[in-house]
Amino acid sequence: MSMQKPRSSVIDGERIYLRELRPDDVTEAYCRWMNDPHITQYTDSRNMNFSIDSLREYVKEKYESKTELFLAIIEREDNCHIGNIKLGPINLQDQNADIGIIIGEKQFWAKGYATEAIGLLKNHAFFVIGLHKLTAGSLGMNTGSIKAFQNNGFKIEGIRKEHVFFKGSFIDTILLGLINE
């Protein structure tokens, strides 16, 4: 099984579509998301500072990766880049991959856009790439993210107790998974 990474494919949804994220997608708005502690508080990059150049380099690495799909979430009505979703690393031998997501434009929070994006990528992973299992992780207090994955059939597979130091205390990490039945 080998993965072909199409450069121009679009994954179409009802209110959004997903397309490969390119270095020229890194704008002032994108940089603002990644430096906003409220937006990144539940991500691995929560304590980092980014420049447009460092973000472009990161996106370039992901764009050239053979084991990851790094996609822009585009709101269809205004053709607006509202966030990113990643599939990877993709393990073709074991037929699994992890999903990570960020909605950077706050006006799109809690409106089902993450749920729709996860559903689109889940279907692509299972029915186009042919994966058997998807996983995701979330800080325990990020109930919106956990719900978006659960809305797509993901189940809580485990809890890493007091796994992350967050705002002065240790908190749990929730591990989610979904098997392609």
Question: In terms of topology, how is this protein built?
Answer:
Layout: E1 10-12, E2 16-20, H1 28-34, H2 37-40, H3 52-64, E3 69-75, E4 80-87, E5 96-103, H4 113-129, E6 133-139, H5 143-150, E7 155-166, E8 169-179
Parallel strand pairs: 5-6
Antiparallel strand pairs: 1-2, 2-3, 3-4, 4-5, 6-8, 7-8
Helix pairs in contact: 4-5
Neighbour order of strands in the largest sheet: 1-2-3-4-5-6-8-7
Main β-sheet description: 8 strands, mixed
Give the count of helical stretches.
5
Q: What is the distance, rounded to the nearest whole angstrom, between the alpha carbons of the first and last residues?
A: 19 Å
Shape verdict:
globular
Unreliable stretches (pLDDT < 50, length at least 5) are none
Decide which structural class fits the backbone.
alpha+beta
Order of helices and strands: EEHHHEEEHEHEE
Strand content: 25-35%
Describe what this molecule looks like in 3D.
An eight-stranded mixed beta sheet has the order 1-2-3-4-5-6-8-7, sandwiched between helices. The chain is an alpha+beta fold and 181 residues long. 27% of the residues lie in helices and 34% in strands. The chain has helices spanning 28-34, 37-40, 52-64, 113-129, 143-150; strands at 10-12, 16-20, 69-75, 80-87, 96-103, 133-139, 155-166, 169-179. β7 and β8 (169-179) form a beta hairpin. α4 (113-129) crosses α5 (143-150). The protein contains five helices and eight strands.
Give the gist of this structure.
With 181 residues, the protein is of the alpha+beta class. The protein has helices at residues 28-34, 37-40, 52-64, 113-129, 143-150, and strands at 10-12, 16-20, 69-75, 80-87, 96-103, 133-139, 155-166, 169-179.
